[in-house]
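Lab meeting prep.
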Amino acid sequence: MIFKVKAFHELTITELYDLLQLRSEVFVVDQNCVYQDVDAKDMNALHVLGYKNNALIAYARLFNKEKYFSEASIGRVVVKASERKFGYGHDLINQSITVIENQFHTKTIQISAQTYLKQFYEAHGFVQQGNGYLEDGIPHIKMLRD
């Protein structure tokens, strides 16, 4: 997989369309969750785009401290359903952590993780903080990586 990291203003129209399409495909259609994906936060994020054979198959958005949470954060983590069996999610998280450390100069990262992915994120050093909660009708947990 080849990664590109871009600020919002650096995204091409095609890249923006592709990332919104992938997010909608997974978060709205596959997970059957009606929510406001286009939330005006994209403009304050770095966008990590993962390509395989020139097709966008993985994506995450990154925020510096105080832009979303008090700590730097990773959100909207998504891998196309047909590509999940190859471990690209791990590649995406590793790339996202590296970008945060290099661009935002911090190792502390907070996420709001879907509860069923707890072990996935624990494999990357994240630890659950507190009790679970519902976000857009889906069980989530706060996790922190120091």
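Slide two material, second protein:
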Amino acid sequence: MRIVYLGTPDFSVLPLQKIVEAGYKVVGVVTNKDKPVGRKHVLTPPPVKVFSQKLNIPVFQYDKIRVEGVEDIKKLKPELMITCAFGQILSQEILDIPKLGVINIHASLLPLYRGASPIHYAILNGEKQTGITIMKTDVGIDTGDIILQRKLEIKPTETCGELFDRLSVLASECIIDALKEIENGRAIYKKQDDNLATFTKIIKKEIAQINWNDDAKSIYNKIRAFNPSPVAFCLFENNPFKIYSAKICDMNGKAGTILKADKELVIACGKGALKLLTVQKAGGKQMDAQAFLLGNKLTVGGEFK
């Protein structure tokens, strides 16, 4: 089976690796363009590109595959295409190229959490489980028929980065099982119930800002959901103050008020409080809160914004 694989971030690498190890012929990999990363804006290739080049798999990069990639894909003569966190919408013209169609690896239990950020939103909303869906791609956003689903419990303290890693492993198992079913003609395609659908948006930095009027549980989930990126933040001395990890405390006070500032840094929420564990002030390094307190004199009753 000739396969073209479309993916971009770390999440996409392990499924591709397992497809290759299972003996399937990947004739090309499509990914997004190299992008500047970090303060020095170092031009950095996507993880899928780096992995593919190690295996000498031809790599194609487009800003808009719908415009730039159609003829290249046709020349590869794929029988099946697989997308995994690719980040671009495919046109019907592209979907029609492989005789077996296009299938997508999606990190939620569809029709829940369609869209760009299902892992972030599952944690943000306090879900206790999520999973992987293998689905047949159509022109809608994650609206195609379901081929296979597997559930995964979300651990109470799990960050988005940690859940990404576990879901990537599950995705690599699911795609191999789905490929076997498709290859043997046994795949069953189940329509989604659009009435149950929920949606996610592209994560922007603004959504990670903490509102201390929210309850402690909601803020705690936000901190988990945006670790490692874009990182939940509030304002300290009128500058962004990042919070990587925290713990819910059984204390109360005016929202945003410092309740403890000796060996522990505890901030009141709209309901309950949070003990901050790992933080980073503007221009500083990531550090535990106790180390931060040694270099920054805070007083009980002061406020974070």
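Talking points for slide two:
The first helix runs from residue 13 to 21.
The two ends are 56 Å apart (CA to CA).
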